[in-house]
Amino acid sequence: MSVKDITIIGGGPAGLYAAFYAGMRDLDVRIVETQKTLGGKINFYPEKLVWDVGGIPATTGANLIDQMVEQGRAFNPEVILDQKISRFEKTADSLFASESESGNRFLSKRIIVATGGGIFNPKKLPLQYDVKFEEKNLHYNIYRLNAFKGKKIVIVGGGNTAVDWANNLVEIADEVHLVHRNDKFKAHEFNYRKLIESAVTVHTHSLVSEIIPDQTGSFITSIKIRNDQTDEDTILDLDELVVNIGFDNDLNFHHDPALNFQLKDDYYIEGSAKAQTAVEGVYAIGDILEFDGKVRLIAGAYNDAANAVNQIKQSLDPSADEKAKVSSHNEVFDEKNKEMKERYYL
Ligand SMILES: Cc1cc2nc3c(=O)[nH]c(=O)nc-3n(C[C@H](O)[C@H](O)[C@H](O)COP(=O)(O)OP(=O)(O)OC[C@H]3O[C@@H](n4cnc5c(N)ncnc54)[C@H](O)[C@@H]3O)c2cc1C
């Protein structure tokens, strides 16, 4: 395993932008992300329109992820997915060794913690089913609403996301059913009112008791739900089954006493506005960082990332400039600009 200048823990907006900016400063980086995909929390709202990222007019979360990933990979960082960093320590030769839960060890000169809101995994339906349905018509997230156009959809859940999906999908789908275990919806008032007035068929006090596949067992054709007040069973035929019944939050390494981070609200890592934490050589950026004036938005994450990378550059090379040269006049883009000019000027 090669020694990188920086190991970035977390591949959300902050980590991806740090990888890009580090490339601009000729630093060699590795991103380690616990999920199977990059993009961080934006994966919670891929179908939503995001308006407040500077310079980008309204675009969907999914498009934003695509663009962030393209930018984050511009200087070919090493990207390691599906590996949760569970601890890190300083080695005798003043490097940092980050260890993943699966036992891999990554060496680097500095660390950037870009772990954001933490590790969230959607709660799965508490029933036995073939996991391959998750690649067919069982969804724990909605990336593009249009993929559901004209279809018969059953949504399971009673939180704001489930209700919001029902409200959005009913406008384009053939039929939408919402199945919830009780009659208390944890949705914003506005969304709940919209639901009640919509054409969504709501099944309260109902739990999914069976998933029914087609004859070849390759996708789901219907589910059986049971009303726990009447004990009545109902079969709902469907094209797509969408589930949002909450998230499991995995514990992170921030609490490791050996690391000695200063935490706010027992979670956020306190640091300077330039992203330096209480641990020398370790920087925190994005939502995980806490300082007076912190902006917990994508725009704020970019600012932290540039600060952290600039600090690292100077700590590794005291003769380096304080900041990167602006990208519009930076020779590191000479080669890449040839390709881009074809894309934009021709
Ligand atoms: C519903 C919702 C809507 C939002 N809408 C907007 C909006 O419109 N505009 C806006 O600017 N902001 C919005 N935000 C906030 C924005 O998403 C965050 O500010 C941004 O995602 C923070 O980026 P981040 O990289 O710091 O953290 P995250 O996006 O949380 O990414 C952190 C990454 O680190 C990974 N990770 C965590 N721990 C480990 C570990 N131990 N090992 C390896 N990987 C790890 C996680 O899996 C995750 O991928 C919204 C947030 C939510 C929840």
Automatic annotation (TrEMBL):
<dbReference type="GO" id="GO:0004324">
    <property type="term" value="F:ferredoxin-NADP+ reductase activity"/>
</dbReference>
<dbReference type="Pfam" id="PF07992">
    <property type="entry name" value="Pyr_redox_2"/>
</dbReference>
<comment type="subunit">
    <text>Homodimer.</text>
</comment>
<feature type="binding site">
    <location>
        <position position="328"/>
    </location>
    <ligand>
        <name>FAD</name>
    </ligand>
</feature>
<feature type="binding site">
    <location>
        <position position="41"/>
    </location>
    <ligand>
        <name>FAD</name>
    </ligand>
</feature>
<feature type="binding site">
    <location>
        <position position="45"/>
    </location>
    <ligand>
        <name>FAD</name>
    </ligand>
</feature>
<feature type="binding site">
    <location>
        <position position="287"/>
    </location>
    <ligand>
        <name>FAD</name>
    </ligand>
</feature>
<feature type="binding site">
    <location>
        <position position="85"/>
    </location>
    <ligand>
        <name>FAD</name>
    </ligand>
</feature>
<feature type="binding site">
    <location>
        <position position="120"/>
    </location>
    <ligand>
        <name>FAD</name>
    </ligand>
</feature>
<feature type="binding site">
    <location>
        <position position="33"/>
    </location>
    <ligand>
        <name>FAD</name>
    </ligand>
</feature>
<dbReference type="GO" id="GO:0050660">
    <property type="term" value="F:flavin adenine dinucleotide binding"/>
</dbReference>
<feature type="domain" description="FAD/NAD(P)-binding">
    <location>
        <begin position="4"/>
        <end position="303"/>
    </location>
</feature>
<dbReference type="InterPro" id="IPR050097">
    <property type="entry name" value="Ferredoxin-NADP_redctase_2"/>
</dbReference>
<dbReference type="GO" id="GO:0050661">
    <property type="term" value="F:NADP binding"/>
</dbReference>
<comment type="similarity">
    <text>Belongs to the ferredoxin--NADP reductase type 2 family.</text>
</comment>
<keyword id="KW-0274">FAD</keyword>
<keyword id="KW-0285">Flavoprotein</keyword>
<dbReference type="InterPro" id="IPR022890">
    <property type="entry name" value="Fd--NADP_Rdtase_type_2"/>
</dbReference>
<keyword id="KW-0560">Oxidoreductase</keyword>
<dbReference type="InterPro" id="IPR023753">
    <property type="entry name" value="FAD/NAD-binding_dom"/>
</dbReference>
<dbReference type="InterPro" id="IPR036188">
    <property type="entry name" value="FAD/NAD-bd_sf"/>
</dbReference>
<keyword id="KW-0521">NADP</keyword>
<protein>
    <recommendedName>
        <fullName>Ferredoxin--NADP reductase</fullName>
        <ecNumber>1.18.1.2</ecNumber>
    </recommendedName>
</protein>
